[in-house]
Structure formats: structure tokens, C-alpha cells
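pinned: reference chain
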Amino acid sequence: MKKLFCVLFILALTVCTAASAERHLEVQSTFTGSAEGTTVYLDQYEQNGGIVSVSSLFPENAVVSDQRKGASLSELHMLFCLRPETVAGIGTAIDQMIEPWLEPRFSEPVKGEYAGELFDSASSLRECSFPLSDLTEYLKNTEKEGTTDRNVLPLINALAGMVSASAGTQEPILRVKSYDKGNRFTVMVMDREEILMTASADRAGGESKHWLISYLEDGLYCFRDISISSDPERCSIRTTMSAGTSPSLHSSSTQRLFTDTFVLTNETEEKRTFVCTVSTENVSRPLVISGTAQGTDDGPAFLNAAVSIEGSPETDIAHISATLETLIRPVSTDDKAIVHSDNEKESAGIMLTAVSNAALLAAEVLPELPTDYQSIILKFFYP
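pinned: its C-alpha cells
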């Protein structure tokens, strides 16, 4: 869990983009209870070919990251403006974008009896392998030609960046297996003959989609089981995270860690409401994050959310607000020490500072939480 926190934190610090318009992201979280009035903030600025991040969690520093690596504020803007109908059509859009390039690379179908983690039976198989860079180069060319879906390409680029990061210095190879004319498929990310990650999908259910992502981390096999159902007005994404010593999700050694359900609903042309519910076997009542997102493709975007415990008579734990807008003028960081995110030693120091300040905040929030939540937070900071 701590490693997951660190990964998310580093991703937040290394946000960058190739978009022409420089942007500014402002996030504030205000706490209630004994920590009432305490506010944690994060600001990120696109400028001078990089991203500058400042936060109350590391108040003496400004973190600078390369604009050519990682996700982007432009892609984050797309998520702020995400609509259920976009989720409903994203699979079709990806197929239309990639299939013309992928199809001639597949082998001829081989008849047989096949099975996988997500399906019991398939009767035909086609395969192909290629470097990830071949696919990303194709996408860059289609982007220049203006033939790509503006809502889908940033997502694919972000996923490609994460896959490259997982492979380290090696060029990752993608091995794709397509079953029964593409209704089911598996994509393996390879480092030579080592499998770094596997993503499987069952698309035989019409509007319902089922994904399974698996990878090895710290000696454990980790699984993200994702189910998506959507229509033009509402979409639901349910994710179950599990881990165990066996490479199979269905092994007796595999234990469920948590389940989250995200529901997005259209309210108006520019406004959506969302509810995210996170539950584990270690807590009696789920954590709930609910709020609104508002924005258009060409204007500023806003998000407001409240964090609470389901069924709790007390007030919300925290309120979160975020604004993403065009950067009006460059920001000076002359009063702060500059830290470069690609420097491991400097990044480790910033991480230590941020976690230490987060622990101080947690000490204020803990007394207001149920005892099972207190135990989880204490194990996070003091394993």
C-alpha cells in the first residue's frame, strides 16, 4: 500500500504534456474535525518546457519535471471533462484507431481449444509481437494527419508512457493474442522473455466490458479485475484489487485487498456527478468520495468532492476542490529550492518530507475516524 502511495505521488509530480497551451492545476483539500481549517494544497504549472510542482507537503521546495515524460495536464483536463458517452464509445474508438495497423501483423487463425483467466473456452487464436515504439510512432503520425479521436489518443499515450516506465531502460515488446475474432484478447508486456504485465479483456458482453490486469510486485502477483458498463447518460466502473503467491487470480492463495466502484452520471451539458465507493474486508463501512465535475473541451475545468464514511453521522472527513485552467503568466520559484524529479536522491528526499508532513496531518485526523480506519492509517505510516 505504501508503494502504491509513492507511485501515485511520483506520478502527480511528473505530470507533463506536449500540448501547446500551458496549464495550471490547483488542488486544495480542507479537513474537518480536530484538523478543521487545515488545508493541504498542490499547484502544478506548465512552463519553460517543464512542470513545476509546489505543495504544502514540501513547502521549502519546487519539483521540476521534464515535460516530455509521463501523463499530462491536458490528459487530466480530458478526465475532468469525461462523460458517460465517451466511456461507452472508447473501446470502439480505440479499435478504429489501432485495428488497421494491427490487423496485417496478426498470424493466420489457428483452430483449437483455448481458455484463459476471463473465459472458459475459445476456438481460434491469432498472434503478433512488436516493439511498443512501433505503435506509438504510428499514433504520432495519425495524430499529425488529424485522423485520431481527440478523446482517446491522450489516454493511449498515457498508458504507453506507463508501460514504458514499467520496463525501465529496456524497449518493451508487446505480444498480442486475439481469440475468436477479437472478442477476447490478451496483451503481454515483455522484457525479452520475462512477462512484466498482462492485460486480458472479454468484449463478448455487448456494452459490458471485463478487463483483468496482472503483474508481479515485491514477490506477489497483483490483479486488477475491472468491469465496465455504460450508456449515454451513466457509466459504472468496478475494480477489485487482489494479490497472492500464485500467478492465477482464482488460486486459493489470492486474497482480495479492496474493491472500488465509480459511477459517473450526466447532469447538464457541462456538469457531471460522480460517486466512488471503496471497501475492504478490514473496515466495516466503505469510504465514499462524491462530488461534481464541470468543464468544456476548450475552457477551464473544475472538480469539487467530499470524503466521508458511509453511514457515518459525523461531518465529512475532508473537502477537495480542483481547478485546471490556462496558465496566465509564468510563476517564479526563486524563494524555493529546486528539486528535479528524475534525480532519485532528490526525489527520495522530497518523498520523505511529504510522507512526514502527511503523518503529522494524519495524527490530527485519526481521533475522528472509526477504529478500523485508524488501524489502516497507522499501518501505512508505521508498518
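why pinned: The first strand starts at residue 23 and ends at 31. The longest helix spans residues 344-365.
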